[in-house]
Amino acid sequence: MGDVNELILSKAGSNVELIPEIAKHLISSGGKRLRPMLTLACADMFGYEGKGHVTLAASVEFMHTATLLHDDVVDESDMRRGKLAARKLWGNQASVLVGDYLLGQAFKMMVDVGSLEALRILSTASAVIAEGEVLQLGAAKNIATSEADYLRVIEAKTAALFAAAAEVGPVIAGQGEAMKQAARSYGMELGYAFQLVDDALDYGGSSADLGKDVGDDFREGKITLPVVLAIARGTDADRAFWKRCLEGEDIADGDLEQAIELLKKYDALAETVERARAYGGNALKALETLPAGPHNDALADAVAFCISRVS
Amino acid sequence: MGDVNELILSKAGSNVELIPEIAKHLISSGGKRLRPMLTLACADMFGYEGKGHVTLAASVEFMHTATLLHDDVVDESDMRRGKLAARKLWGNQASVLVGDYLLGQAFKMMVDVGSLEALRILSTASAVIAEGEVLQLGAAKNIATSEADYLRVIEAKTAALFAAAAEVGPVIAGQGEAMKQAARSYGMELGYAFQLVDDALDYGGSSADLGKDVGDDFREGKITLPVVLAIARGTDADRAFWKRCLEGEDIADGDLEQAIELLKKYDALAETVERARAYGGNALKALETLPAGPHNDALADAVAFCISRVS
Which Pfam families match (chains A, B) (predicted)? Predict the structure, then answer.
């Protein structure tokens, strides 16, 4: 990961001063680097000896960082990873453009690696992520969003990049379909688990503690699984409450507490975490097909880490 | 070009309804398709017989369309090609995300073609364009912008894509360095000419007629070559005027007319057009290295067309 971090910082450079300034703000603000780790482990586990996986891992992180920059603009978010969002410090305009720059750099780096198959996988993920975000725009502020709609959104906006990040490991290591499919499946299931845990954490997790970063999704009118479950199980009065807050964005003091109360009442947070655990179990299952050893263990630890964030 | 248009419309599709809606709004609103035409002509002139140039041409147009969507958000523009800008119809959020989707699709299409060299050229252009836009953000609202600063911006934000669009023609047709360099040089020079003409047209062209689309750059505080030239030649009072309007965005009735008056007084529009002609001449010079015939003639016509828009 040291090589990946070094490459990330060097490729975030540009003669245009604002670009490294914004990129480094985000890159050095302590993301978990989960996605690039998947790429490295999924190549190293096959004894891959080149440097291509480092470059692909850095591209994956750039794609992710570009998405974060654009997401914050789209969601009008003020905070990201406990710091002011880039758009609050440098404006929406710079966030959009620096995101575009990082995406361009990501593709240049993939081209350097020279694997058309890895390029196909990652460029497809890039289009799918954007599709997922557009889909989420449509689902936002619509309390009629079904569980299936919601899963379609998170598959595209989150799980697809986890899947691609893992799949390019065996690709660069010259493996066949079975290994590529297993790595992809591991990444996809982990991605689902990761997003569900994130969604539960946004309401304080299964313990529903009111931490400092709680309630962003609620305030932005985002319909996530806990809400979908609570709405499906709620009374007409509950639905009216969700409709006012999420569709109408008419949120008063005490509404977030009321929302969390409803989520607890209908077991919506606990059940979201339960589903995350199930996806995590599927990810572990996929690992059984991949070679055993320390990299396989690290990938299993990643699953445990994702789930542990919430419990 | 019929094949390119067909491919563009089919690849702008998505199950997510909003995507084809927005993409087609922009794609069918009568862009000049100048960039994809360069790719086709620069491949066909070497007797290229495959279909890869059509796919590359469509990718180039997608990259351009994605840039337009993001530009309108960044510039807060209301109009694009005489229609309401996508961001006014569907919002900034959808414009950012659909731009991202089109960029992802563009890379997928390039991967389909399978030329790593074309991928390298176009992904580099993609990063350079974004760099140019960030540079322009810094230059906007700064009347101290020099002519060199300005040329650096337009090389990156406009000429680089023209150059890449032309260069991938001989690349896909399997030509050597000399032909690639000539095509690139043709595209680059044409790109400069194109942008300078655009800048002059934004103030009514050399005749300085006040058409309906005049004054956007002025209202957005953009520093373009006509303004750079007029500021360099103006009095202190003139500088105060430009400073108030472009840096302070304090624009009153009659200010645009006053700006055009100053541009005429200091020959700034005529000289901008003169420079465009010189770049156009360089483009024609580059064509001498490329094979003669109907495609070479079409590329020469493209130069004449660009210049004729303003005179």
Answer: polyprenyl_synt
